[in-house]
Amino acid sequence: MQIPREEFVPTDLQEQAFQDGPLPIGFGQTISQPYTVAAMAEALRLSPSDRVLDVGTGSGYAAAVLSCLAAEVHSIERIPELAESASQRLRRLGMDNVHVHLGDGTAGLPAYAPFDAIVVAAGAPELPQPYVEQLADGGRIVIPIGSTSTSQSLYRFTRHGDHIQSEDLGPFSFVPLIGKHGWPDDDLSWRQTE
Ligand code: SAH
User: What domains are defined for the chain?
Assistant: First the structure.
C-alpha cells in the first residue's frame, strides 16, 4: 500500500494499475503482476538490514517494494531507456535506498557483492553462476528457471556455507532473461517496433 503502482505504468494504463495482472511498459517488457511481486518478496525472507540485488528493474516497481523491506537495493536493467526512467521515477518518489544500474544483470554486480538476497524478474535457462558467487552465507536467490524462454518454475536457492539448497515454488511465466548467463539476444524486434 505504500507504493503508488499507478506511477510505474504508462499514463494510458493508470486506471488498470490496481488490477492483479502484468501491464506493458514498452520495449516488449512488462511490469510484473502484483501477486508475483508479493510472492517473490515473501520468498526472499528479507530482514530490514539486508542488501538486495534486483535483476530486471523494468518499471522499478519491484525495487520500490523491496526498498521498504530491506536496507539497500541494487537494481540492474539491460534496456537503457527503462533503466533511466525507473531511476528518475524512484528518485522522484524519494526512494533513496534504491540504486539503478545499467548492464547485463546475469553477471550480477560484483562491485557491490555480497548480497543477502538476489531476485530475478526474468526467466533463466539455469541458475547463473555469478549469483552463487555473490551470495552471502545464509543468503537467498529467488529466480524463475525454465527450459523454454517463456514458462518457468520459481526457485529459491539458499546458501548454507558451501551447500546450496534448492526449492521449487511452483509455475510462473516471465519475460526471458537475456545475457551472457541467460538466453541469447536473438530477438531485437522490441527495438524495431518501439
Ligand atoms: N521488476 C520489474 C519487472 C520487469 S520485467 C518491474 O517491477 O517492473 C523484467 C525486466 O528484466 C525487463 O525490463 C527486461 O528488460 C529485464 N532484463 C532481461 N534480461 C536482463 C538482464 N540480463 N539484465 C538486466 N535486466 C534484464
Answer: 23-172 (3.40.50.150)
173 given a catalytic annotation: no
C-alpha cell read off for 2: 505504500
H or E element at residue 85:
helix 80-92
Ligand 1 pocket residue status of 142, Cβ below 6 Å: no
Q: Report the predicted TM-score, pTM, of the whole model to 2 decimal places.
A: 0.95
Percent of the chain with pLDDT strictly greater than 90: 92
Tell me, in angstroms, the distance from the centre of ligand 1 to residue 108's CA: 13
- Would the pLDDT of 124 be above 50? yes
